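Hi there,

I know you've been waiting on this one. I reran it after we fixed the sequence typo, so this is the corrected version. Both the input and the resulting structure follow.
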Amino acid sequence: QVQLVESGGGLVQAGDSLRLSCVDSGRTVSNYAMGWFRQAPGKEREFVAAISRGAGSTVYADSVKGRFTISRNNAKNTVYLQMNSLKSEDTAVYYCAAGPTYSTFYSRYDYWGQGTQVTVSS
């Protein structure tokens, strides 16, 4: 079954880059569209990026367009989120999710990882 584990978070300065990874230990990531969401303290879960099962389509939140890139390597059962030009407002816990189709709505996803903390200082 799907078991998602995020990694790659940390503390960085504004303008720096991070690459998050999401690995499916169940080795079934190729069967799902994947998404990244984030949640800052006191705020609701926010859509970040999503990618289709075949990696042919992606969608991004306006706040991260041009800075973040979602990609996947189905052979490695891994989805990535490359984050460049990080801003303090990017600070949040980042979650990866799996679902039948890629979507900006968190309710469309069936499986979630535990999250990885990203902190961006100014």
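Quick highlight: The chain has no helices and eleven strands.

Best,
R. S.
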